[in-house]
């Protein structure tokens, strides 16, 4: 049954503290726009939440969305909510699902986190051999390229779990890298030792963006969600995901794209990068396109990288 003001609107979400916080924020937006709606939150534990090993072992970023997608396509929920940076590229995902609403973008930067009680720190100032925890190939490659004196160590787990283990010494690293938006959602910005410059440390595609998705064959939910979309953020997301689509990038590849709107020209600017997993010189590109077709700039930036030999670094040649 499609949702209406006389039936429950079932919203699927991961049950982590961060996911529930962003679900709560969206719930306020939805119920403010539709005061009579009967909203039901449906927890869906993802494979990525259960599995503590490398994501490559369970199919990459899809580990965070496959079960939610199944719930959606089997009509057990009407919509799902997720961080845009966790969405697989279109070629890595089952069809039949569309973005219905895009919330306003939050901070995009990554941050350095140190254990509680430690003083100020920067990546550049950490002693040689310091182990830096991260689950993202993008971050690990950036670390090798920009700070080769440090050692990237893969870590997994929800943000609150990782922070607890960092503090008690069981995470296996001295410091870790996290998303500024996530630390803000958990009200933990006081834990930040350094905010990494997005112009140098390019953020993940979709960083700081929360999306709500629905089935393609559910026009009622599409109509319900569409007015809740923040159009400027949606344009940036379309541009960034278009670049990754050209590159066939995923969370298993060290590639990213970041889009901004230039108000002076009313155009979308996309900065994209493909990193050498071994820390070599990254390939960078930028492109501009009309605001009316934001994906055009993303596709151009992605194609520039392919033309420069990005397939060698991506492992697709």
Shape: globular
- Radius of gyration, Cα only, in angstroms? 19 Å
Identify the CATH class of the largest domain: Alpha Beta
Give me the side-by-side strand order of the main sheet.
Answer: 2-1-3-10-4
Largest sheet: 5 strands, mixed
Count of domain modules: 3
What is the fold's blueprint, element by element?
Layout: E1 8-13, H1 17-33, E2 38-43, H2 47-50, H3 66-73, E3 79-83, E4 97-102, E5 110-113, E6 131-134, H4 137-146, E7 151-154, H5 159-168, E8 175-179, H6 180-185, E9 192-195, E10 210-215, H7 219-225, H8 231-247, E11 255-262, E12 267-274, E13 283-290, H9 294-307, H10 310-314
Parallel strand pairs: 1-2, 1-3, 6-7, 6-8
Antiparallel strand pairs: 3-10, 4-10, 5-8, 5-9, 11-12, 12-13
Helix pairs in contact: 8-9
What would you say this structure looks like, in words?
With 317 residues, the protein is α/β, with parallel strands linked by helices. The protein is 31% helix and 23% strand. Strand 1, helix 1 and strand 2 form a beta-alpha-beta unit. Strands 2-1-3-10-4 form a five-stranded mixed sheet, sandwiched between helices. A five-stranded mixed sheet has the order 7-6-8-5-9, sandwiched between helices. A three-stranded antiparallel sheet has the order 11-12-13. The protein folds into three domains: 8-103 and 209-229, D-Maltodextrin-Binding Protein, domain 2 (3-Layer(aba) Sandwich), CATH 3.40.190; 110-195, Periplasmic binding protein-like II (D-Maltodextrin-Binding Protein, domain 2, 3-Layer(aba) Sandwich); 243-308, Double Stranded RNA Binding Domain.
